[in-house]
Specification:
Blueprint lengths: L7 H17 L14 E6 L14 H8 L6 E4 L4 E4 L2 E6 L3 E6 L13 H13 L12 E8 L2 E6 L6 H5 L7 H7 L13 E6 L5 E5 L12 E6 L3 H9 L5 E2 L16 E16 L9 H10 L2 H7 L5 E3 L22 H10 L6 E7 L7 H13 L3 E7 L2 H5 L11 E7 L3 H9 L12 H12 L3 H18 L2 E14 L2 E2 L14 E2 L1
Parallel strand pairs: 1-10, 1-11, 14-15
Antiparallel strand pairs: 2-3, 4-5, 5-7, 6-7, 8-9, 9-10, 11-17, 12-16, 12-17, 13-17, 18-19
Helix pairs in contact: 1-6, 7-9, 12-13, 13-14
C-alpha cells in the first residue's frame, strides 16, 4: 500500500469498535456487548428488502420471516422428513390433502388462528401479483376450510410432495391483514415467537418476544437484525462487541475466532448444492460424451481444500447428504484425465473445444476463484474456458439462467427434497434452465410426485439420481459448511438451511 491508503476490508480489521460504529451509524455503540435475555444483535448479510412476506425466495429471508410468521410444516434435516408447526397432522388422499391444524394458537393481534387464515394465505401466495411462491401452487384447484381446524387442499392430480410445497409458505392473519387495507404490507401479523416492531428499507429489523406464543417461550426479549453486506464488516462487528451472531463468515476469517474470549465459530453442512449446469440445447453440451468428459476432468476436492480451506463436502451425486432423496450408493465420476480426453475425441473434439463458463460473483462465495480453478482443470483435457462474470440479477434473469440463454454456468441451489431440483431443473417443460429431455426421467418424476408411500417414493428419487448420473446434464461439486460467528454465552446449533431461528437460541 505504497499510496498510504487502505481498503475497506483493512479498515474494518484495524478500526475495531470505532470503525464498525462509523460503518453502521453512531447508534450501534449503545448496543449490548454480549447477548443477554434482554437483547440479541444479529449481523446479517441479508435482510428484508420489502415487508411483503411472499415477495421472497431465499432461505435466509425465509428464516427471518419464520421468526414472525410461521408455516404449516418445517423440515427435520437430521431425519430427512417434515414435522408440523401450525399443522398438527395430515393425510394424503390422492387428489386431496386433509390437514388438521394446531388449536389454541393466536396471532400477534390476539385473533385466533383457524383454517380461514390458511385459505386466505394460500390464495394470496397463489394469486398475489407480487408473490414469488406461485409455482408451488400450480396444481391446486381448491383450498377450503372444512371446519375451524381442518383444511382440505384439492389438486388436479395427486401431489405427494405437498409438504415440501408447504414448507416456507407462511400463514398470515386474515382479519389482521384485511384490517390494514392498503397498508397491509407495513405490519405483517403472524403467529411466530417474535412480533414485528420496526423495519428500515436498508434491511434493518427489530422484533420483540411474543409473550403469548403457543410454543416454548423464547429466551431473548428483543432481536435487533442489522444488515451488513460486507463479510469483513460482520466479523469486525462481532470482534468489536457490536454483535452477538453473524452469518456467512468467510473461511479466511475463521482463525480470528480461535481462542477468542467472547466469540466462537459454529459450523454445519449446508443444503445448498453447488454444481456446473449444462444446457443441453447449447453446443457442445448437447453431446453426452462431452458432459461426461467434464465430469471426469473436474476435481472438487482441490476447490474445497485450497479455496474453502477444507470447509466443504464433496457431492457424489445430484443431492447433498441433508436432502430427502439423497442416495449414499451413488458415486461421482472419478478424476481421470485420459478418460476425459478419450471421450472428447469420440464426441468429435480431438483437438479440444472452446466454452464459456458463466458465474455470479455477488451471489455465491468465492465464485470467481472457483471458476478459475475449474477453467484450469478443464484446460488439462483440451477444454478452453472463457469466464463470464455477471451481476446476479442478469445471471439469474430472462437473459440468463431462467431464460435458457446460458450453456454452461456455476450455480448453487438449496433444497429440502430432491424433487424440488429434479422438477425445476431436469423435468421437461418446467424450466429452460437446462432443457434436459428424458421421457423415462419425466415419467418417474410424475410417478414419485403422486406416490404417498415414503419408501417407494424414496426408491424413485434414488432411481432419478442414477439416471442423471448417466446423462450428466450437470457436474456435481459440493455442499459448503454454513459458518456463523456466535457469542459464547449463546447455546445454539446452526441449521443446514441458512435460517437464523432466534427462539432456538438460549442464553447461558
Amino acid at each position: 500500500m505504497s499510496n498510504g491508503k487502505i481498503n475497506r476490508r483493512e479498515f474494518l480489521k484495524r478500526g475495531g469498535v470505532a470503525g464498525f460504529a462509523t460503518l453502521l451509524g453512531g447508534s450501534i455503540v449503545k448496543l449490548s456487548y454480549a447477548a443477554s435475555r434482554e437483547r440479541l444483535t444479529a449481523l446479517s448479510s441479508i435482510g428484508l428488502d420489502t415487508l411483503h412476506p411472499y415477495a421472497h425466495s431465499s432461505s435466509p429471508q425465509y428464516g427471518i420471516w419464520h421468526n414472525m410468521i410461521e408455516p404449516l410444516v418445517e423440515v427435520d434435516y437430521a431425519k430427512r422428513t417434515h414435522y408440523g408447526v401450525l399443522a398438527e397432522s395430515w393425510e394424503f388422499q390422492g387428489k386431496r390433502w386433509v390437514i388438521k391444524l394446531r388449536k389454541n394458537v393466536r396471532f400477534h393481534d390476539s385473533s385466533p388462528f383457524t383454517a380461514k387464515d390458511v385459505v386466505y394465505s394460500i390464495n394470496r401466495m397463489k394469486n398475489d401479483k407480487l408473490s414469488l411462491q406461485k409455482e408451488n401452487f400450480r396444481d391446486f384447484t381448491e383450498v377450503q376450510a372444512a371446519d375451524d381446524y381442518t383444511v382440505i387442499i384439492t389438486t388436479e392430480q395427486p401431489v405427494a410432495v405437498m409438504l415440501d410445497r408447504l414448507q416456507n409458505r407462511f400463514i398470515l392473519s386474515k382479519t389482521g391483514m384485511e384490517a390494514q387495507g392498503d397498508q397491509a404490507e407495513l405490519k405483517p401479523v403472524g403467529t411466530g415467537p417474535y412480533k414485528f416492531q420496526s423495519w428500515q428499507r436498508d434491511g434493518n429489523l427489530i422484533m420483540v418476544r411474543n409473550d403469548g406464543y403457543w410454543g416454548a417461550k423464547p429466551s431473548i426479549r428483543e432481536i435487533v437484525l442489522r444488515r451488513v453486506r460486507e463479510d469483513s464488516g460482520r466479523v469486525a462487528g462481532l470482534l468489536a462487541g457490536q454483535g452477538d451472531v453473524a452469518n456467512n463468515v468467510p473461511v479466511e476469517e475463521l482463525s480470528r475466532f480461535d481462542n477468542h474470549p467472547r466469540i466462537r465459530a459454529e459450523k454445519v453442512e449446508g443444503v445448498r448444492m453447488y454444481f456446473l449446469a449444462m444446457n443441453v440445447t447449447h453446443k457442445p453440451f448437447d453431446n453426452k460424451l462431452v458432459r461426461q468428459a467434464i465430469n471426469y476432468a473436474v476435481d472438487p476436492a482441490v476447490i474445497i481444500k485450497h479455496i474453502y480451506e477444507g470447509n466443504g463436502y464433496i457431492m457424489n451425486g445430484p443431492m447433498g447428504a441433508n436432502v430427502i432423496g439423497f442416495d449414499p450408493k451413488i458415486k461421482r465420476y472419478p478424476l481421470d484425465l485420459n478418460k476425459a480426453k478419450e471421450l472428447l475425441t469420440k464426441a468429435g473434439y480431438p483437438n479440444g473445444v472452446d466454452v464459456k463458463l458463466y458465474f455470479s460473483p455477488d451471489r455465491y462465495p468465492k465464485a470467481k476463484e472457483v471458476c478459475q480453478v475449474i477453467a484450469d482443470q478443464l484446460s488439462k483435457v483440451g477444454i478452453k474456458v472463457e469466464l463470464v462474470s455477471q451481476e446476479f440479477v442478469i445471471f439469474w434473469g430472462k437473459e440468463g439462467v431462467n431464460g435458457g440463454k446460458l450453456g454452461f454456468y456455476y450455480v448453487g441451489r438449496p433444497a429440502a427434497d430432491a424433487d424440488t431440483v429434479y422438477d425445476q431443473y431436469y423435468r421437461s417443460g418446467v424450466s429452460p434452465r437446462i432443457q434436459y429431455k428424458n421421457p423415462e426421467f419425466d415419467k418417474l418424476v410424475d410417478e414419485e410426485q403422486k406416490t404417498g408411500d415414503a419408501k417407494k417414493r424414496l426408491a424413485m428419487l434414488h432411481q432419478l439420481g442414477r439416471i442423471l448420473m448417466e446423462d450428466v446434464p450437470f457436474c456435481p461439486l459440493y455442499t459448503l459448511a454454513e459458518i456463523y460467528g456466535v457469542a459464547r454465552n449463546i447455546n445454539w446449533k446452526a441449521r443446514p438451511d441458512e435460517k437464523l431461528m432466534y427462539a432456538e437460541m438460549k442464553i447461558r
